[in-house]
Design goal:
alpha+beta, Molybdopterin biosynthesis moea protein, domain 2, three-stranded antiparallel sheet, 13% strand
Length: 76
């Protein structure tokens, strides 16, 4: 599915100017029809899944309680 630059910017929650810069730097592949650029949104699916998985892993790590160390002795 092809999306416009504005739709991709909303989809990725990024500024439109940054998307245009990425297209100019060839970091994002796009097709120009003479009026505007179209971007295949499938190229972001893997990236978005990886970002979501990483966020989930970080949340799990943050919510894991610190285990009590059995070797710690009260020196008082």
């Amino acid at each position: 599915m092809y999306m416009t630059v504005e739709e991709i910017a909303n989809y990725l929650s990024m500024p439109i100017e940054q998307i245009k810069r990425y297209i100019a730097e060839k970091k994002i592949r796009a097709i120009f029809d003479g009026e505007q650029y179209y971007v295949n949104s499938a190229q972001f699916e893997t990236h978005l899944h990886q970002v979501e998985d990483l966020k989930r892993q970080i949340d799990e790590w943050r919510n894991t309680p610190i285990p009590d160390d059995i070797d710690v002795k009260d020196e008082d």
